[in-house]
Design goal:
The complex is a heterodimer of chains A (about 300) and B (about 300).
Chain A (H helix, E strand, L loop, with lengths): L2 H17 L7 H32 L6 H4 L13 H32 L5 H13 L4 H14 L8 H25 L3 H9 L4 H29 L3 H5 L20 H10 L3 H32 L4
Helix pairs in contact in A: 2-12, 4-7, 4-9, 4-11, 6-7, 7-9, 8-9, 9-12, 11-12
Chain B lengths: L11 H7 L11 H38 L2 H4 L9 H32 L2 H16 L2 H20 L9 H25 L3 H9 L4 H12 L1 H17 L2 H6 L17 H10 L7 H34 L1
Helix pairs in contact in B: 2-13, 4-7, 4-10, 5-7, 6-7, 7-10, 8-9, 10-13, 12-13
Classes of the chains: A mainly alpha (about 300), B mainly alpha (about 300).
């Protein structure tokens, strides 16, 4: 054997051994691999079936009445989701105004100012992990108590729903903002501090702007979670049958997921069709938000 | 110089160079500390929220147990019985885990051990799309497709219009990304040297994955499963739509059974005046739900901590 073939063989053996690929060809291994493929694509298949099935169910109702008319029990074939769509927009904007600044402030404190060895900072940390997994319906109960505390008598208003959704997405915003802020390299902070900037000036003028794409992505993903939530809103007395546009934060409101829920519970087939069509609208809204988040991440996010 | 820096115009550093005594001690900055306090207040708000939840729940619960005996709440039947609700939650959660644990773990093993870096970059977000679908949509899907088409027509099963099986199956699909994502983190954290050792002993990739990487990542995988479980327990809209609205203490998943979250959603939708027994019971069930998920999350967090310590 010449030395070059020896070299070649050794390389090939090394490559095969280091990945284990050479011994992947027996039946058990192949079955295992097929099972892994199946589990990976099972979810995607379900999603496809879900979308196709819903689109077919809702197809007869893809008309303008769907988004321009109000809910109607008398004419189920012409019932619409105008109040729900506008209500969802109102809820999202109010939620964002409340939750985003708070979430960013909390994340900045935890990443830039907090001393992690102090017990109270560790408590906040642990508490955040817990809050992120609290069932959404419990936030509804909390928002009911908050509304009672500030003495708001009216039920089913924008403010109450936004408080519930804001509380719900606050942990998400804090966690994603922290990740974005943590990804900013220390060199930038040291450079700023070395030029005489204070800690806050460094945070406000250097760290935060560098982290904006990550924060925006996390915030939008949080909002896209909130947009589909119905459970906490139910507790605040937000019902499906609202037949006017919301006019302010104290105005009674409904939301798209709530309307879908109440349509689904009605027995006539026309309402099921309308619910399916409204689901398509909701999915488009969620997908647009997710697409926006991905776009921002790919376009503006820097790899340090 | 340090006393009257305002008196000398121009850059103080240049002036300071001539003298040896520059005051380098940090000066107190009032605005800075105000800002820091504000930021800290926002962070502390998360703690306030937790205590708020407990307080908000406890007050009506105390009223509730003033009106209803303890034994009637923790009973198997009756208007105030909570055990059938817990059984319903348990049933849908178990069905969900039967779906989500093998599938989530399989997806995680593929992503961590088999997929190339580029494939992972596209496959992971695709899988996570599943978590982005609103739960009311899943509920509609369970009601409009899984029960009538899949269970009744294709599998020819004798199930009711609402049943725990359909709700649990769809719930399982919803938590696949939760299980997969955390498990993948755990599997990827296993050091490469362990894989290399296994491969050098002549094991193939399947054997390495199942007998070396998976056991090494077990605490992380357990954390993923427990977190998925907590999601399943707390999920509301799927079970409110598809699991049924009747309390039913049964071990047959083909029957409709109400869960804790389903009960809360249904009662909240009805007209119960503030302070009535039924209204207060809402909070009693809510507190129970909160405590259950709190314990489960604590278990999950301690598992995660263990696997972080190991590597």
């Amino acid at each position: 054997m010449t030395s070059s073939t020896l070299e070649y063989t050794r390389e090939a053996v090394q490559k095969a051994v280091s990945t284990g690929r050479s011994r992947d060809r027996n039946t058990a291994s192949l079955v295992f691999l097929v099972l892994l493929w199946f589990s990976l694509f099972f979810g995607v298949m379900v999603l496809l079936v879900l979308i196709v099935n819903t689109v077919i169910d809702g197809a007869p109702r893809f008309d303008s009445a769907l988004i321009t008319r109000y809910d109607s029990t008398l004419f189920p074939e012409r019932t619409g989701f105008r109040a729900g769509i506008l209500g969802t927009v109102w809820l999202m904007v109010t939620t964002a105004i409340m939750a985003v600044p708070l979430g960013i402030a909390a994340a900045l404190y935890l990443e830039e100012f907090a001393d992690n060895t102090r017990w109270y900072n560790r408590l906040i940390e642990l508490n955040l992990q817990n809050l992120a997994a609290v069932p959404s319906i419990v936030y509804g109960l909390l928002a009911v108590a908050v509304m009672a505390l500030i003495g708001f008598e009216r039920k089913g208003v924008v403010l109450g729903g936004a408080i519930a959704l804001g509380l719900l997405i606050l942990p998400i915003i804090i966690i994603t903002t922290r990740e974005a802020v943590r990804a900013v390299p220390n060199d930038i902070r040291f450079g700023s501090l070395a030029l005489g900037a204070t800690q806050w000036q460094t945070t406000w003028r250097q760290t935060l702007p560098s982290a904006i794409p990550g924060i925006a992505t996390g915030t939008i993903l949080g909002l896209s979670r909130a947009i589909g939530e119905a459970a906490p809103l139910l507790l605040l007395g937000i019902a499906g049958a609202v037949r006017f546009d919301p006019t302010g934060v104290a105005s009674p409101v409904t939301a798209l997921p709530i309307q879908i829920f109440s349509m689904t519970s009605r027995s006539q087939d026309e309402f099921q069709t309308a619910a399916a069509a409204a689901i398509v609208v909701l999915l488009v809204m969620v997908l647009l938000l997710n697409g926006l988040a991905i776009f921002i991440r790919n376009k503006f996010q820097r790899e340090w | 110089m340090s006393e009257n820096s305002s008196a000398t115009p121009g850059p103080p550093s240049g002036a300071g160079l001539a003298h040896a005594s520059v005051d380098l001690r940090p000066r107190p900055r009032r605005a800075e500390s105000v800002i820091k306090t504000i930021l800290m207040g926002s962070a502390l708000l998360s703690v306030v929220i937790t205590f708020g939840i407990v307080l908000a729940l406890i007050e009506p619960v105390i009223h509730f147990f003033g009106q209803v005996q303890f034994g009637k709440f923790f009973a198997t039947e009756g208007h105030f019985a909570v055990l059938p609700l817990i059984a319903g939650t348990l049933m849908t959660t178990v069905v969900a885990l039967v779906v989500a644990v093998p599938l989530g773990l399989g997806a995680a093993m593929y992503l961590s051990e088999y997929a190339s870096k580029r494939a992972r970059k596209t496959l992971k977000p695709t899988l996570e799309l599943l978590a982005g679908v609103p739960s009311v949509v899943y509920g509609f899907f369970a009601l409009a497709f899984v029960t009538p088409t899949l269970l009744q027509d294709i599998l020819n099963m004798d199930v009711g219009f609402t049943n725990a099986l359909a709700a649990g199956l769809v719930l399982g699909v919803m938590i696949i990304p939760t299980v997969a994502s955390l498990s993948e983190d755990a599997l990827s954290a296993v050091p490469q040297s362990m894989r290399q050792g296994s491969l050098a002993m002549g094991a193939n990739r399947m054997q390495t994955t199942l007998r070396v990487v998976l056991p090494a990542a077990l605490s992380g995988v357990a954390a993923a499963v427990v977190l998925g479980m907590s999601r399943a327990i707390g999920e509301t809209m799927i079970v409110a739509l598809a699991a049924g609205a009747q309390k039913n203490l049964s071990i047959d998943p083909r029957e409709g059974m109400q869960t804790m979250t389903g009960f809360i959603a249904q009662t909240a939708g009805g007209e119960n005046p503030v302070g009535s027994v039924d209204y207060n019971m809402l909070f009693a069930v809510g507190l129970l739900l909160f405590l259950i998920t709190l314990v489960i999350n604590a278990i999950s967090i301690s598992f995660v901590r263990r696997f972080r310590q190991a590597y």
